[in-house]
Structure formats: C-alpha cells, structure tokens
Amino acid sequence: MSLGSNNPLWAVIAYALAITTSALLLRYFPRIRGSLEHVGENRFSSVDGLRGYLAFGVFIHHVAITWVYLHTGEINVPPSNFYTQIGLASVALFFMITGFLFWGRLLKHGRHHDWLAFAVSRVFRLYPLYLPLLALVIFSVLYIQDWELKDSPGEVVRQVLAWLVFDRPDINQYPQTGMLISNVTWTLNYEVFFYMALPLFGAVFLYRKHWIQVVACLIGIYTLYQVIGWEHSLKKHILMSFLGGIAAAYWVRNPERMAWGQTPKAGWIALLALAIELLLFRKSFAIFPLMLLTVFFTIVASGNTLFGALRLRSIRWMGEISYSTYLLHGFVIWLLMQRLPLALPFDTKEPLVFLTLTAFSSCLLIAVSSLTFLLIEKPGINAGKRFLSWLRRNSPVNGPVKSASETHNAD
C-alpha cells in the first residue's frame, strides 16, 4: 500500500471505514436517520450520493499530500496518478454539480428565477460552518504563538477580513496558515464567481433582449472575473469544469437520453471513463480529462446509481454532510498528523503509525461532520429560510417564497 503507486487498496480501506462509520451513525442515532431526507422534485439522489464519495476523496488526496510533506518537507501532490486525481477529479466534479444544479434551475424557471432566494441561500449555505472554522484557525494560530501579536492589530484584522472572502493570507505571521485547513477554500472563490455571474450568464445565453444588454453583461462577467480573482487569478481551465455540469443539465432534459443514461451499459461506460481518468492522467483540468469526467457525470446525473453504489444510505448521508467533510477535513489532518505527534511519543513518518492515524481520521471525520451538519449547517440553512421570509414580509414588493426552499434543496 504505497502512496507512490496507483494501488488504491488503502484508499478503499479508508472509504470502507468512513462508510461503516456513516452506517453505524444512521443505525444508532435517530436524529441522523430523520435528517436523511431528500425532499423536493429537484433533488437528484444519484448526485447526492456522488457528493459523499467526492468529499471523502479530497480527504484521501490531502492525506497523501501530508505523507509527502512529512517525508520531503515540501507541499506537493503525490507521485501517484490515482492519489492525485482522487482529489483533483473530485473538485472538478463538485464544480460540475454546481453548474448542473443551478443552470438546470435557470432552464426551468427562466426569467422567473428567484434571485433573492438564491442569494440568501448561498450566503447561509457557505458561512454558518465557515465562520466557526475560521475562529478555530485564528484560535489555533494565537495559541501556538502564546497569544503574542506579531503583526499590528490592524494588520491582523485585514488578514481575517481576507479570510472572510476565502483568501488565505498568513495570520499573525504564522507560516502557511492555510495549511491548517489544507487550503480548501480556493474552490469557494470559483463557486462564488459562478453564483455571482450566473444571472449575467443567464441574461446572455437564455433570455437576452438586446445586444446592448449582452455587451453590458459580458463586461459585468469580466469585471467579476477580475475582482474575485484579484489576489489569485481564477484559472480559465478550472472554470471549464462548470461547463460539464451545464452540458449535463441539457442532457437530462431529454427523456430518451436520460433513460439511456440509467442503463447498465451507460453505468459501465461511466466507470470506464472514471477509471481512465484516475489511472492514466495527472491533471483533471484539461480538455480530455474534463471530457471524461463530463461523460461520467452526465450518466450519474441521468439517475444511474452505478450498480447501487450511489444508492447506499450511508453514502447518501456522507453526501448530506459533504460540505462539512470538505471544509473540516484539512483541520482534522493537521491536528492528528502534525500537532498530536508533538504531544505523544510516536512518529507519523512510520507507515504503520501514519496508516493508523489515517484510519482513525476517516472515522473521526465522518462523526465530526455529522455533528457539525446537525448543529451548524442545518440550523444555518433553516435560518436562511427564516431570514428570506422576513425579507419578504418587510419588502414593499412580495415575491414567492416557495423557490427559497427549492434553492436550499438544490445544494
């Protein structure tokens, strides 16, 4: 079981531990069972299941990076195609999910899309969990530094404000502060760009009125592209991932194509495309790898459960808590792989010790993510719904509230 080879055995073991933990939580905790509900006609159960695999795949990817870091002192992707792609391909597929769900809503609602509900839902989806995580990062940095301010208070405030918009400058001169969370928030910049540009894209491609409107919207898109990528430029080849999801949104609107996508033959094609991606390529954000991932995702979006692998209740729960898993896994890795060894007499460079900690982290991550989903994420989503209702009641122009819940259910 080497991180230098494409042998997926230890990744399979980690997945098995995570899935088992999820299954046990569902069995013994009624509140979790009750939360595993996918209501609303716009939910795609196969996509929900896919989320569970993807978020945990990013965790495995960063565990492999940690192994490389412990032995070389450098933060690099692992030499294995598989352990590199299990993270990069997962991120690309997450972007496809975003493109698929929200472009699909534009196709469905057109000019009647509820943009207020959309905006409120995105804020209350991203920040309720992110803010406590940021507080935890700040606390950890200051605790390690014995509460000594190495920068001026104003500079520290500026650094924290940058983190609030998902940038990751070093806080109080703590080197590579972003590594406390495996720098995962870089993807949120791309998500935010897509959310903010979505009405402009819709005006250009779906319900344009006049060429002046098109030009104005294109200028707006370019401006957003520059502003959101001010510190770290948004990469065009990464943004192309969203196109795979948009293509799938058009595919599933055709009943015949969607029916074919649910066949066993389509399932085998999807698995073959994914296997080629994971084993033969070093990059995900390039034309041919993205085409392979688009084939895979389109078949999944059609409702193909990949021979039941996406239908498991334990996987669906992992999909439900995928945002917590994605956002928190870096801190779990940092805590167990880098901070814990400073207090206990063991060497994480030893393969057996490292694999033992990985196994423990796999179970702990699912348990912690389940807890934060129930105590932070879900209440945050509900708070967003209440806030939207409050806005409706106090707005001189009342709009439909129904689409607010639909928007929340989409992600």
TrEMBL record:
Keywords, comma-separated and alphabetical: Acyltransferase, Membrane, Transferase, Transmembrane, Transmembrane helix
**One Pfam match, by short name?**
Acyl_transf_3
InterPro entries according to UniProt: Acyl_transf_3_dom, Acyltransferase_3
Q: Which residues cross the membrane?
A: 12-29, 50-70, 82-103, 124-144, 188-206, 211-228, 234-252, 264-281, 287-309, 321-340, 352-376
What GO molecular function terms would the record report?
Answer: acyltransferase activity
Q: Which residues form the Acyltransferase domain?
A: 45-364
The name under which this protein is listed is: Acyltransferase
Organism listed in the record: Pseudomonas lundensis
**Organism classification:** Bacteria, Pseudomonadati, Pseudomonadota, Gammaproteobacteria, Pseudomonadales
